[in-house]
Amino acid sequence: MNVVTGRLNDFNEREAWRYLGYTAGANGLSALTKQCGGIFEECKTLVLQVQELRAVYEVFDVRECEGGLDLGFAFTASRDLKKYLAGCKKLVLFAATAGAGIDRAIAKYSRLSPARAAVIQAQGAALAEDWCNFLHDGFITRRGALKARFSPGFGDLSLDIQRDIFRALQVTKNIGVVLSDDCFMTPSKSVTAIAGIKD
Amino acid sequence: MTFTQKLQNSMVVLDGAMGTLLQAAGLAPGEQPEEWNLSHPSVIQGIHEEYIRAGADVIYANTFGANALKFGDRTEEVVRAGVTCAVRAAKNCGGAFVALDVGPLGKMLSPLGDLPFERAVELFSRTISAGVKAGADVIAIETMNDIYEAKAAVVAARECCGLPVMVTLVFGEDGKTMTGTTPEAAVALLEGLRVDALGVNCSLGPAQMKGVVKRMLAAASVPVAVKPNAGLPSCVDGKTEYSLDARSFAEQTASLVKLGARVAGGCCGTAPEYIRALKAALSGCRARAVKQKNSTVVSSYTNAVYFGHTPVLIGERINPTGKKKLKEALRSGDVDYILGEAVAQEQAGAHVLDVNVGLPELDEPSVLARTVREIQAVTALPLQIDTSDPSAMEAAMRVYNGKPLVNSVNGKEEVMRAVFPLVAKYGGAVIALTLDESGIPSTAAGRVAVAKKIIRRAAEYGIKKRDIIFDTLAMAVSADSSAAAAALDSMEYIRRRLGCNTSLGVSNISFGLPCRELINSTFFAMALARGLSAAIVNPSSAEIKKAYRCYLALTGLDANCGEYINYASSIAAPAVSAAAETVKPAPAVKDLKDAVVHGLKDRAAKFAAELLKSLPPLEVINTRIIPALDEVGAGFENKTVFLPQLLMSAEAASAAFDVIKGAFSGEAEAKRIKIVVATVKGDIHDIGKNIVKTLLVNYGFKVYDLGRDVPPERVAEEVERTGAQVCGLSALMTTTVQAMAETVKLLRARCPGVKIIAGGAVMNAEYAANIGADVYCRDAMATVRYCEEAERALG
User: Fold this and answer.
1) Which among A12, B210, B268, B755 has most CB atoms closer than 10 A?
2) pTM to 2 decimal places
3) Shortest CB distance from A35 goes to which of B178, B379, B645?
4) Strand duo B263-264 + B674-679: pairing
């Protein structure tokens, strides 16, 4: 099991704007940032300040078996995951979080300034995504992982597999993320994913 | 010898990992280790015996995860079996202390997660009661990521038994727990709860723990425990291996003992040979004596605030006495107003916030506890729980996440008897007023005598001098010209001779005089110069700020006068205040409508105030604010305006409404439709619901917000109570659609007339129709439009 921490100096702003509903059309970002740029920048400073990036990962063997796949940490009958993992002998399973500080900031501003809460929410999601990209890039270069990744809830892969992931990676112990009975994660800006490895 | 005696007299060696050994013995992945207490008791007992033979003084029963969330009705059986294995091993091997191992519940406590504090206490109580009955000698609460959960476990232990309690938390290499608690804040809270030992376990190896252990040792007045992993984990051939062998682990852990830790053992990756090596490495080590730190400290869940160095400013603004707006906010349950005050005081430089919600018509225990919880969700400052009602004090101290400051006790026997047991149970520093049954002594000597009595009585409850902060009562100098002298003389005596910290409510001194701020700030400066440790003030008062900044510069508490210089330049050229516009560049706005459209809060408030001089309030709303909101709302619907802009406009409109509210004075509500909103049971995602609420309020609707994770019965009750015509329900998760369906069903049965709106990420028109809602609203604007239609239908 590998536990890592990190810190990012930036995140993909365009992605955060997109979560907020902006689309780069005729009324592209430049025109819109004028009005909201102030709070966007203010919130960005806060989000980067309160980030607590942590992750845990592990490599497992994948085997086809009757009725589905043995993922090394769980059995699944998901056809979409099987399609994604076609030709893979191994996979990297990881859980990553941007930390509880962002949830606290969202809770705080949802009472004080809903506009800021919405922006922090979007930026936190963008930050978590970038943190996953950073980790995933490492898996691609060091382990030859596939460029796409697959998360619980994609296609026909049920969220229930979160329970197996949490057990296999000891996610709560290692990075402080807990799973609700409904398989949602707290802190909310957390991601679990699988990246297949061919060879 | 009891565990407590052992702890006081010598080093204590704990055992090592259980899970690691069980896996080696064949525990299957995914199998609960605690099941083995019943299925393989001899294996469990054998591991304990190995640890005792290796030299462990304390063995942790295999009960780490034995709670009712995992084991339900079998909890007691599993705990009993686990403790029994350990007790048998101890007997077989000539004795060891048996610790009931209490690990985290695996759920996040609210407000971050969905597990209520009291439910956590209940769950821990079940495990602990069973463990105590089975014969445990000590309660070992360990591997806690969240200090609030640790508090719930300690409260449960204290309520179930008189056994000693040891708590170890997980820290990251950044020196904080995963929920952001510093070692100092952790020590403050845990010592407040009177744990017998505290420390660090898991997550790090001994070398990486050093920084945190040093900080704990510097802060703690009880023994510090360390239970590191066998170094850092790595993955070799699919198996987790740790970086340290037994010898290196023992050497590095022994160096933590040399720093002053008195309790040491091993966590993940360790085995009996690690404990044997540790025991050997410690053989020549004398346990370092625990020094009493005598610090007066309070804490929030993240930070500790110390008294006695830089004077502490306690913000006084959350107190309804003489504040019409706050009274109204409390009566109408408008927590947002209070939260705004909390954040404003934090930005103005307060270190601690006083919280007083005492109004005769309120149920103070529940309102105070709720207010404390809500304020803690928006600020990391420690709070001063201010009430004269002991049941309110207890309710608030219990849910408070940290070590609170309690305001107040005094020399009256009845008051001491009510307050001291609470401070003893929940921890806290307490403000003590120097008055008693015969009133406020007019002389300094009289007040000192009361202080001495309070110190004596507190000691009988085990409350140390360091946890009492004396307020020698500044009375109106206009009524008694010796009032300032009596307060200051006694304050100085208590500070210098009795060695206690002091606090004063500064503003009473000027009662009955003009230009009160002048008297207040001068008195404040005089008191600081004579040793005042803290003051209850309005941190936004310019005069108080001046006196405080100057005092720090003049007494060398402000290195190179840096803070003073910053402050001075800020008053020379007024800087943009924290509440001011952050939108740059500010577009040219000509009127209220413009200000709302552009989302400019301050401008909107100013224009509203201006307009109210010539227009009735309702007209300002209907001809300026609503058209502005409509314009932005239409933009949102056409996708030319996006969510942040919509919300910024809403915030600007709120600012204008706040001004207008003051002018309303009893006029009818702008709208007749009342709406209850809630995120349904099981769902803790409330951002969408909050956005809907914000917009509805701005359009003049009366909104009752029940929050998140709301049971169907609560929704129905509120609709009945308020006579709301519309009820908005939100669900984000597919799993909670069912809860929404149940809520709709109950509403149909109990409140036949109510119109039900369904919304949230997983909803659509079809779903909404299926579960029997009246309408699906895709976003906040759609909800507003629907409610406006309902308003028109009322005619």
Assistant:
1) B268
2) 0.86
3) B645
4) unpaired
Answer yes or no: is B577 within a domain: no
Torsion of CA B499, B501, B506, B509, to 10 degrees: -20
Same domain, B658 and B748: no
Asked whether residue B580 is assigned to any structural domain, the reply reads no
**Chain B residues touching A3 at Cβ < 8 A:** 233
Binary contact (A40, B174; C-beta < 8 A): no
pLDDT > 90? residue B658: no
Residue B692 lies in a domain: yes
Question: Do B363 and B506 belong to one domain?
Answer: yes
Q: Give the best residue of A90, A93, A184 to mutate against chain B (max B CB count within 10 A).
A: A184
Subunit contact B691:A101, Cβ cutoff 8 A: no
Chain A interface disruption, residue of B147, B179, B346, most A CBs within 10 A: B179
Any CB–CB contact under 8 A between B349 and chain A? no
- Is B687's pLDDT higher than 80? no
**Nearest of B72, B168, B65 to residue B107 by alpha carbon:** B65
Number of domains in chain B: 4
- How, if at all, do strands B312-318 and B263-264 pair? unpaired
Asked if B691 reaches chain A (Cβ–Cβ under 8 Å), the answer is yes
Q: Residue holding tokens 């577009």?
A: B587
CB-based burial, B615-633: b 16+ in 10 Å, e otherwise? bebbebbeebbbebbbbbb
With a CB-CB cutoff of 8 Å, which residues 53-112 of chain A face chain B?
54, 58-61, 72-73, 99-101, 103-104, 106-108, 110-112
> Using CA atoms, how far apart are residues B647 and B649, in angstroms rounded to an integer?
5
Q: B174 vs A118: CB contact, 8 Å cut-off?
A: no
- The enclosing domain of B647 has a CATH number of 1.10.1240.10
CATH value of A2-198 in 3.10.20.740, 3.40.50.300, 3.40.109.40, 3.40.630.70: 3.40.109.40
ipTM surpasses cut 0.90: no
Q: For chain A, which residues make up each domain, given as ranges?
A: 2-198
pLDDT in tens, B140-167: 999 999 999 999 999 999 999 999 999 9
